[in-house]
Amino acid sequence: MFSSLQGRSAIVTGGSKGLGRGIAEVFAAAGINVLITGRTQTDIDATIAELGDRPGRVSGLAADVANPNDCQRVVAAAVERHGGVDIVCANAGVFPQCRLEDLTPEDIEHVLSVNFKGTVFMVQASLAALAASGHGRVIITSSITGPITGYPGWSHYGASKAAQLGFLRTAAMELARKKITMNAVLPGNIMTEGLIDMGQEYMDGMAATIPSGRLGTVADIGNAALFFATDEAAFITGQTLVVDGGQVLPESAAAIADL
Ligand code: NAP
């Protein structure tokens, strides 16, 4: 049994949709007060309305993680509303597909700005508040794509997700003496609006390659993030947790066909 996280304060970037909303839902159910962000106010409002009836309070703020000033505003709002920041989930991300031959400098800059720099800016903005909490937690949403696997059209995206882990390993060391842990969840294919936009054919094809035989749910990711947030995970830092139903395990298509 894990210690209660009731009353802790969390920021979930990209909490207005998809995986972030799933993390926010699991956290609020555990009694954690959650500040969700995203750039689109209407999505934030819809998620707050949906997650309103939980033990933890859910509120929101429109902010762009690629803008360091916005990250500072998010932290200030969490401190004001919830008395501090104990947990930061650097989850906001974009995953446009573009083949290498068509990639422009702007495409690369966009993906790195949100996924990599946005992670760094959000963590930097939270440092003082996380240190003050005495049990700070940073949980990064990376991906299997980049650190472990590849997929056509996602060379820049994969690089941004691997970059988050390069950042993680040194930053986790720098923050350890401040009792801040920093870990990453590496989701496989999870059912979100973003993934649904890829089309039914993509989703069916993906499910067929996963030993568990299904795509993940946002709660699968929320529960993994919740574990890293617990007091019992205090001695785990700089680590990654793949949450993918075994997707990265098969050596070949034949291995799946033999199941
Ligand atoms: P999603 O459904 O498209 O949600 C993305 C969230 O990020 C939204 O709340 C979005 O809100 C926000 N966001 C995007 N750009 C932002 C910015 N510049 N500033 C602030 N917020 C921003 O995507 P998702 O599938 O949940 O993905 C979330 C994370 O999980 C990403 O880091 C992604 O790489 C990772 N991931 C997802 C999967 C999967 O299967 N879905 C697998 C592996 C990893 P606005 O658009 O309103 O800003």
Automatic annotation (TrEMBL):
Keywords: Oxidoreductase. The keyword Oxidoreductase applies. Residues 8-151 form the Ketoreductase domain. The keyword Oxidoreductase applies. SMART domains: PKS_KR (SM00822). GO terms for biological process: fatty acid biosynthetic process. It comes from the Bacteria. It holds the Pfam family adh_short_C2. GO terms for molecular function: oxidoreductase activity, acting on the CH-OH group of donors, NAD or NADP as acceptor; quinone binding. Belongs to the short-chain dehydrogenases/reductases (SDR) family. This is 3-oxoacyl-ACP reductase. It comes from Mycolicibacterium sphagni. The lineage of its organism: Bacteria, Bacillati, Actinomycetota, Actinomycetes, Mycobacteriales.
